[in-house]
Amino acid sequence: MDVSNALSHGPFEGVRVFSEDLRDAGYRLYFSGKWHVSSEKGPEAYGFERVYHTGEYGPWPRRPDDREWRHYRQPRELDQGAESRQSGQILRPGYPRYLQYGETENPFHDEDVVNAAVEKLKQLDGEEPYFFFVGPLGPHDPYFVPQRFLDLYDPDEIRLPDNFYDDLLDKPALYRRTKNRFSQLTVQEQKESIRHFYAFCSYEDELFGRILNQVEQSGQMENTLLLYVSDHGDYIGAHGLWAKGLPCFREAYHICSMAGGGVVQQAGRTDCSRISLADWAPTFLELAGAPARPMEGRSLAGLLRGEPPANPRTYTYTQTNGNEIYGIQRAVWNDQWKYVFNTFDYDELYDLEKDPGELHNLLHGLENDEIDASPYGPMVRQLCRALWDFALQHQDNCVNPYIMTALAPYGPGILWQTDPPGPMTIS
Questions:
Q1: Does 291 sit behind a cis peptide bond, omega within 30 degrees of 0 on the bond before it?
Q2: Which of 132, 312, 338, 399 would be a feasible disulfide site paired with 350, CB 3.0-4.6 Å?
Q3: Helices 187-217, 110-123: inter-axial angle, 10-degree rounding
Q4: The sheet that has 316-323: what strands, in order across it?
Q5: Residue of 390, 388, 409, 396 whose CA lies nearest to 343
Q6: Any idea what DSSP says for residue 11?
Q7: Which of 99, 102, 88, 98 is nearest to 189 (CA)?
């Protein structure tokens, strides 16, 4: 969003965000934290009053010196390639120095973000309905946290993920190239990275507690919905990877949402329904009494009231065109099977029941014209059908039939074809 080579620097023309619906329904909107909606327009353009903002935005294009190239104008700040590596450092000659973890008192100014939100909440008397987005950046890489939270975790009790030693030889080469960056870290440094990430999560929990306390003290808890959620996960050493990126593993995509407040009628309930972050926008609008309109998500208002999920999802889908570097990837999975379509390399198929760590790519070594005759052909066809159906419903334009780009084993046309006879599941 805010890098020079981003695919877009803001929502597409004509896109209406849910905050505008809340505004029109009579809600006051407040914003404190990171802004990843647009690099060209700030929160005010979408109905918010800006309480605290980390980042910058303004008209594009910007001069390269103002953004990406400024990192390289300070030779003292760059890795030289021959220096001695310190604990947690990943050497990248010609790039800025990178430390995976460390200690600091106010990482990413998250405390400022939350404190500003708390002070604003003290001014709200509840007479006017409001929506408040508080967006600290943590727990994000690099993992720099206050020492008191590190002290909560015994380094000797930290364990590496079960799939940490995956060599990735049966997966896309980009995955291995990404992992190679982190292979400089010793096993002990990998464990320290995990410890720092856990500490970062505890730090964010404390900050969220300040929000909860202020809402409670204001007497508004009973008519308030509070959502505690992350925008993505972190590999945290899974497959030897860190941060988040193109590798389509569950650690980066599988997150949980925690909702509380008087609107939630069954406190302490855990639900394993297959939901999406996109579901929260229609949820907010329904609970606010705003007019309904077509949206990609499904309202979870019934779920918050303790009702069984209406029209539960069978599949989860992901769509990405890359993480600052381009790489078109689409994925679909259900409770057992996960298929990943990679335009930049060969595809992936995992049996999540037998292989929850996604260690064994069942399509490794198979060319497209060999998949159909393999034991996995019927399942890949079924998952491709689901993938393309989702693409059609959501106007995904990744369907170019040109011979150099149409690389899926089964193209979108299978939506209008009759499946061949035979089992659609693998015994």
A1: no
A2: 338
A3: 10
A4: 316-323, 325-333, 337-342, 348-351
A5: 409
A6: P
A7: 88
